[in-house]
TrEMBL record:
The chain crosses the membrane at residues 16-36, 60-79, 130-148, 155-175, 223-241, 248-266, 272-290. This is Inositol phosphorylceramide synthase. It comes from Spirosoma telluris. One of its GO terms (cellular component) is membrane. It is a multi-pass membrane protein. Pfam families: PAP2_3. InterPro entries: Aur1/Ipt1 (IPR026841), IPC_Synthase-Related (IPR052185). It is found in: Membrane.
């Protein structure tokens, strides 16, 4: 059984030595797999700072270590691009999107991405950028709120988040898929080392004279991981747990952000409608699976131990 005493029992020297070894191992492995990046030092500094700052910050770090592990795994996917293991779906996905959701425009049939590419407005450029940039901050802020206010409710959210991501990662490797902007830029020809692209989000950066999205997508783990859209999964998880935890009017905000992110994914040419639907399905499947597994005694005990450890 885990207890609070397990946090404070080792000597400070042993804690420093252990965390230093973990930090150095992470930096070394990162260098070997994906090369050195400054944000790796930021992560190491943040983890060490939170661990040694206070008992409360250490508990916060332990609770949110689930999200840290996710970030590291996502980053390491660069070392194992999915196109090495399966063919990338480019033209077939584009044609299926056009067949199912095509929009008549004169004598042509356009995909929803192509339609919005021809009907961009400054208002929608800014609005979709604001929605899209919230896809990580809002889940993290909501998770922080639950961690502070209701720790037993925090861990189901965090574990569901991990499960949905793992499901998405599996699909990335089973079904590598090019995003709409790739077809707009390169056609149906496969180019293995294609860099990340801001696509329609470049309009947001240009309007404000910043490089927010360009800096984010320069670090893209794999451009051929468009299916499913995990951007579309996260707000579903947030809304579900918002409703489950009776967040009241905040859930209206969560719902608006959810729909806004779905629309933004298509408007900016980062995802097809099919990608968005796959992301929604991935979230619903993950939530359902977790709810079933949560009824088992071992997971109930595990969550109770985590709550005890960080209380």
């Amino acid at each position: 059984m885990i207890s609070n005493s397990s946090i404070a029992s080792p000597s400070r020297y042993k804690q420093i030595l252990t965390l230093s070894l973990i930090s150095l191992s992470y930096l070394l492995l990162s260098f070997v797999l994906v090369g050195f990046k400054s944000d790796q030092l930021v992560l190491v500094g943040l983890v060490n700072g939170l661990y040694f700052a206070s008992d409360q910050s250490r508990k916060f770090l332990i609770g949110f270590s689930i999200f840290i592990v996710y970030w590291i795994v996502f980053d390491y996917m660069k070392a194992f691009p999915n196109y090495r293991y399966n063919d990338v779906h480019i033209e077939s996905l584009y044609l299926l999107e056009k067949k199912l959701f095509g929009i008549a425009s004169g004598s042509s049939i356009l995909t929803p991405n192509e339609y919005w590419l021809a009907h961009r407005t400054t208002f929608l450029n800014v609005l979709t950028g604001l929605f899209y940039v919230s896809w990580i901050p809002i889940p993290l802020l909501f998770a922080t709120y639950l961690f502070i206010k209701d720790r037993p409710a925090f861990y189901p959210l965090a574990l569901t988040f991990v499960l949905v991501n793992l499901l998405g990662f599996v699909i990335y490797y089973v079904y590598p898929a090019a995003p709409p902007w790739y077809v707009q830029a390169y056609g149906f020809t496969f180019h293995a080392h294609t860099p990340g692209n801001t696509a329609g989000l470049a309009n947001f950066d240009q309007y404000f004279g910043i490089s927010l999205f360009s800096s984010i997508y320069a670090k893209s783990s794999n451009v051929f991981a468009a299916m499913p859209s995990l951007h579309s999964s996260y707000p579903v998880i947030v809304l579900y747990y918002g409703l489950k935890n009776k967040m009241g009017l905040v859930n209206i905000f969560f719902a608006l952000v959810m729909v806004g992110i779905w629309f933004s994914a298509v408007y900016t040419s980062h995802h097809y409608v099919l990608d968005v639907l796959a992301g929604i399905t991935c979230a619903l499947v993950g939530i359902t699976l977790f709810n079933r597994v949560q009824k088992t005694s071992w997971l109930t005990t595990f969550i109770h131990q985590l709550v005890t450890l960080t209380s």
